[in-house]
Amino acid sequence: MHATTQFGHPAIDHPGLPQFLQQQFDQFNQRFDQQQTMTQNIRIVARNQRSLDSPLLPLQKYIPGDGNALAQELASTPALVQAVQIFQPHGNIGAVMPNFNPQVDAYGHVDVLHLIIFYNDNFGIAYGDQLPQRKHKIRTWLLENLV
């Protein structure tokens, strides 16, 4: 007996069904990974808040994709634009920034832009923000971001 006849629904016998189901499964997995990462980040933020005398721990990436477009909007000089264009580490959900420097006070503009690219998050930084404001927003993200 044919599936359409047996179940009375033509969608069961649709040739695109396996691809559709795979896409749905992939989306579910991505959302699950994001939820797991957000839970872990809550723990990391709590640890960063409790241990202010210790180096800050990096949060895990929880927004898919890269933040090249976000960083381009904040790059205020040709040298910064070039630094954004050549920076490539785009992590998966759950990854941490390679070679993360916990000393936020030591960051320069390029360091901030690299974080934006990696995490695909501008941390509330606006184009007119000066470096001290940008560092403050990064530190706030590491200490208060509860997603």
Largest sheet: none
Helix content: 40-55%
Q: Helix and strand string, N-terminal first? A: HHHHHH
Would you identify the regions where 5 or more consecutive residues have pLDDT less than 50? 1-5
Computed CA radius of gyration, to the nearest angstrom:
21 Å
Roughly how many Å apart are the termini? Answer: 51 Å
Give a brief rundown of this model.
This protein has 147 residues and is mainly alpha-helical. It has helices at 3-7, 17-50, 68-74, 78-86, 109-119, 131-144. The relative contact order is 0.15.
What would your notes on this structure say?
With 147 residues, this protein is mostly helical. It contains six helices and no strands. It starts with a helix and ends with a helix.
Helix and strand arrangement:
Blueprint: H1 3-7, H2 17-50, H3 68-74, H4 78-86, H5 109-119, H6 131-144
Give short descriptive properties of this protein.
mainly alpha, 147 residues, 54% helix
